[in-house]
Design brief:
single chain, mainly alpha, 72% helix, globular
């Protein structure tokens, strides 16, 4: 099945994925290295395959705004749900690929800490996962 994504659809997918990494990075600022968290998460996103991998490999037009974590979350969490919905309508397998790609990025970002991620990062990961699953 061929999937056709508009430029706006691609921007939604980009905002969702890279925004999720940004939220984890912001959560890490409470007790870790946000730059390393962002780098590890971004590397995971750039390793994606399939249509999602093609979209994430070219983050053109991506603009994540927010002067606070709350403002960034207001932009990213709905984009996660929207990306899952638009991919799920066209190809459920690609929606699963997107979900798994974002979760791998969260895991990569969370591993920057020794042991388990702290409560701030764990809660942010829970919110991101809930947004991914809201479209199911």
């Amino acid at each position: 099945m061929t999937i056709t994504l508009t430029d706006q659809d691609k921007l939604t997918v980009l905002t969702a994925a890279y925004g999720a990494v940004g939220l984890m990075s912001a959560a890490a600022a409470a007790g870790g290295s946000p730059h390393k968290v962002a780098a590890d998460g971004s590397i995971a996103l750039s390793s994606a395959t399939g249509l999602v991998g093609h979209v994430l490999a070219k983050p053109k037009g991506l603009k994540l705004d927010g002067k606070s974590v709350a403002e960034l979350a207001d932009q990213v969490l709905p984009a996660l749900t929207a990306a899952m919905s638009l991919l799920g309508k066209q190809n459920p397998t690609e929606a699963d690929n997107f979900r798994s790609t974002v979760l791998v990025a969260l895991d990569a970002a969370g591993r920057r800490h020794k042991g388990e991620p702290g409560p701030t990062m764990a809660e942010m990961a829970r919110k991101i996962t809930a947004a991914l699953d809201a479209a199911r």
